[in-house]
Amino acid sequence: MTNTNTPTTPARRKPRRQGRPSLLTPTTMDLLTRATAVGLPMSQAADAAAVGRSTFLRWMRMGEDAVEEQQEGHLDVDSPNPHAALYARVTRARAAAAARATGQIEEAARGAVVSETYRTWTDPVTGEVRSERRIRRRPGDWRASAWLLVRLDPQPKSLDELLDEEDARIRAERGESAVTPDLRDLAARLQKTFVQGQEQPPVL
User: Fold this and answer.
1) What is the rounded CA–CA span in Å between residue 30 and residue 164?
2) Alpha-carbon span 35 to 48, nearest angstrom
C-alpha cells in the first residue's frame, strides 16, 4: 500500500532582489568635496569624481530640499540623509575656498612675509654679542585668488537653473530641440486650440 501522507519539502523562497545601489558612495562624496574645496565649478567637480553633471546637480538639489525641509536650514555634514550630507559638505567646502582666497588677497595687501631670519655675532671691536632680525617681504600675487573669487561667484545660480542649463546642453549634444518640456506642452495646447478654432463653423 502506497503511503500518500509523505510530507513534501516546502518550496524555497526566491531571494528578494535588492535595489540598485546608490552611486552616492562615501568615496564619491569625498571626491566631490575635495574637488569643490579647491574652487572647481560644480560641473568640473562632477567630472573629477566621474559623476554625471546632471546627477551631481540633482543630488545637490535633493540635499538642499532636505536641509530646508528636515533640518531647518542647518548644514550637517554627518546627516543620515546622504544628499543632505553632500550638500552640507560641498557648500561648506566652497565657502572655505572663498574665505581662503579672501585671506590671501588681504595678506597680499599687507605685503607677504617671504622669510624671517636671525643672525647673532660677536663684535670684533667691543666683544659684545649682537643679534639682528631680518624680514624680507615682497608683494604677493593676489591675481590668482581674485580670479578664484570671481569663478566662485558670490551670487551663484540656483540648482534649478543649473539643471535647466545642463538639460539644454544634453539636448543640444543629441540634436534635440532646446525647447523645454513646459514650453513644448504649451505649444501643443496652443496648436490644439488653433486647430479646433479652424474646425468650428463660422457663427452667422
Assistant:
1) 26
2) 7
Which pLDDT does position 29 carry in this prediction?
94
Whole-angstrom Cα distance, residue 137 to residue 5?
A: 99
Give the chain's largest Cα–Cα span: 130
Average pLDDT, the chain: 77
* 134 contacts 116 by C-beta, under 8 angstroms: yes
The whole-model pTM stands at 0.56
Which long-range contacts (C-beta less than 8 Å, at least 24 apart) are formed by 105-110? Answer: 105/142, 105/145, 105/146, 105/149, 107/140, 108/139, 108/140, 108/141, 108/142, 108/145, 109/142
**Per-residue pLDDT, 124:** 83
Write down the residue that cell numbers 457663427 correspond to.
203
